Amino acid sequence: MKFIIVFAALFALTMANKDAEILHYENNVEPENFSYSLQTSDGKTAEEQGHLENAGTEDEAISVRGSYSYIGDDGQTYQVNYIADRNGFQPQGAHIPVA
Predict the structure, then answer these.
(1) pTM strictly above 0.85
(2) What residues have CB less than 8 Å from 52, skipping those under 6 apart?
(3) Of residues 13 and 61, which shows the higher confidence score?
(4) Is 62 helix (H, G, I), strand (E, B) or coil?
(5) For residue range 20-54, what is the model confidence (pLDDT) as tens digits?
(6) d(CA 8, CA 71)
(7) Tally of helices (H runs) and strands (E runs) in the chain
């Protein structure tokens, strides 16, 4: 499952610009936690850490914290910080409206 999350994030970032090169990539996948960081030549960055909560119980779940940034069509850099856990995906960013 963790491999799929990391692979999906990397695939999404690199497919957005087929000419972009990966400048930095680092990952660590263990049985109960994972982390990765990535930087591409077109200005995208991503990093994420996750861990397994309540391992071996009915309440077992993955809790993830991360961020990504990219340069928009307007030339500005946008950054999103997020948490993904039992409460769903919770993004925060200066450009994201708050309810």
Answers:
(1) no
(2) 31, 32, 33, 60, 61, 62, 63
(3) 61
(4) strand
(5) 899 999 999 998 999 999 999 999 999 999 999 99
(6) 20
(7) 1, 6
* Amino acid letter for position 32: E
**Residues constituting the chain:** 99
Specify which residues 82 forms β-bridges with.
Answer: 66, 91
Which tokens hold the place of 51? 């861990």
CA-based radius of gyration for the chain: 15
Among all chains, which residue has been given the structure tokens 């119980």?
57
State how beta strands 45-53 and 61-71 pair: antiparallel
Cβ atoms of 55 and 63 within 8 Å: the answer is no
CA dihedral for 48, 52, 53, 58, sign (positive or negative): positive
Residue type, position 76, single letter: Q
DSSP letter, residue 78: E
